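User: When convenient, might I ask for sequence and structure tokens for a protein?

AI:
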Amino acid sequence: MSDKQLKAIVLAAGKGTRMRTDGSDLPKVMRQACGKPLLHYVLQALSFIPPRDTVIVVGYQKELVMQGFPGYCFAQQTQQLGTGHAVMSAFEVLQGFDGDVLVCCGDMPLIHQHTYEALVQTHRQTGAACTILTGTSHLDLPYGRIQRDAQGNFHCIVEQKDCTPEQLQTRELNAGVYVFDAPALRKALSQLQNNNASGEYYLTDAPAFIQGSGGALSICKLDLGSEIIGVNTPDQLAEVEAVLNARA
């Protein structure tokens, strides 16, 4: 097992435009489920990483997020140019860091601590430069699909909106959660392009860059079920509340 230092990057800069049917303009991660912000549940599950080692990427109404979670590190994403761009923003406060970085989303409040820990453990046991959390789910979720080669090894991640009908048949979903070797990630971020359907810099392109430059890649595949519901709509918020209530 590696004894490298571990830090976390939590992506929390989004507006949550599709949530605004109720007239509220809260940042998405500050929307409440069962009386607490979505981001609260994510940080609770990451409590094995100290707040001082957790960088929250903020953007829209950043003051609300920063006031709500004192004691954490913050990085600002001034423009919403995709997940890859958000992680680039975080590296402005991680200059010189050469340990491991867990990257996750602030709008996914159902992922358990033991799931994050299993991902870190897989990363360290395999000695990989990048480890991807993938999973199956009984839910129909709009997530990127893991593409494997004929030998069953990782080939790439294709975002749902860029998938061919054949690629959409893949049931192995990208959870949007990774552990990276920080120097390998830093190098991959510098290679990202935004020539895709959204004109955004996708973090999902980074694993293929790392693998292409000789970095080892591993996958932590679990049956994730409802854990990987991300909150983008009022219906998904209601789903998340139902799961949280059932757990309680």
